[in-house]
Amino acid sequence: MLIDLHTHSFVSDGTDAPADLIRAAKTAGLDVVALTDHDTAAGWPEAQRAADEVGITLVPGMEISTRLGSASVHLLGYLLDPTHPPLVAALDRILDGRNGRVPAICAQLQAVGIEVTEEDVRLSAGDAAATGRPHIADVMVATGAVASRDEAFAKFLNPGRPGYVRRYACPLEEAIGLVGEAGGVPVIAHPWGRSPGALTEETLARLTAIGLHGIEVDHQEHSPQAREALRGIARNLGLVVTGSSDHHGTGKVDHDLGCNTTDPDEYERILELATSAPSTGSAAAPRRG
User: Fold this and answer.
1) Residue 265: burial class (beta carbons within 10 Å; 0-12, 13-18, 19+)
2) Is 188 helix (H, G, I), strand (E, B) or coil?
3) Across the chain, where does the E strand assignment appear?
4) Nearest CA among 271, 264, 220 for reference residue 244
5) Residue 283: what are its φ and ψ, rounded to 5°?
6) What phi and psi values does residue 71 have, to the nearest 5 degrees?
7) Full pLDDT tens readout for the chain, 289 residues
């Protein structure tokens, strides 16, 4: 059984429609795929319909923007109820922060000679629930200012670069609690990729004590040495170990569907840990293809 537990559609910053993503996952030979768009469940219904059509199991999830001190940390929430009111309130605030900083980023880019307008970004984002830096990067690629999203981030959009604007992110401890309250399973995404110094074993132990259930170990941003060390930490703390592609369609290179996968026994642990398992916003377990 091949299981990929971290993918994105164009509902957030991927480039594929949810249904197209599911069909691509089936073509790639996956048996189980999680749709984990940033801070939204808006793609779940379309993805579930496609999963039913092609015969693949969809795990509904999302990747929540959080902060641990000054570090940005992404939290994957699986099988949670997206209508849980405190969670909805937190996601609304996060999305407002994402969308609200677009004018400031555009202004800062214009100040250094990069012509990006709010209208350009809106058109690039289309119907995405979360508008953000990847859509701005796509505009920069389209206008020839940079050659790729990676170059846009490295030169202009990452912290410390001329187009970076800080935004609101939910405190990590609060987000772990919200996912648990919503019946879901909280798993930290690429813990040593984005903020490698923030998530020590001691910190992960403290987070486990308040409800963290897993860490994403097998990820393209983790070296073999990092994966081995993280696997040891997970074993020490009793955490679920996941692996995934973090697929974004053409939005990220070297993140092909199924390039990293989750062991079936670890996937079963996630299913057992979930106390609410919605497929499209109702309390129903994932429908197996």
Assistant:
1) exposed
2) strand
3) 3-4, 32-35, 57-68, 71-78, 170-171, 185-188, 214-218, 240-243
4) 220
5) -80, 80
6) -95, 140
7) 999 999 999 999 999 999 999 999 999 999 999 999 999 999 999 999 999 999 999 999 999 999 999 999 999 999 999 999 999 999 999 999 988 999 999 999 999 999 999 999 999 988 888 788 999 999 999 999 999 999 999 999 999 999 999 999 999 999 999 999 999 999 999 999 977 789 999 999 999 999 999 999 999 999 999 999 999 999 999 999 999 999 999 988 899 999 999 999 999 999 999 985 544 343 345 765 5
Contact 245, 48 (CB under 8 A): no
**Domains of the chain with CATH codes:** 3-93+168-273 (3.20.20.140), 102-157 (1.10.150.650)
Q: What is the token pair recorded at 90? A: 């937190």
CA 111 – CA 146 distance, rounded (Å): 16
Query: CA 80, 82, 83: angle at the middle one, nearest 5?
Result: 125
Whether residue 79 contacts residue 61, with contact meaning beta carbons closer than 8 Å, is answered with yes
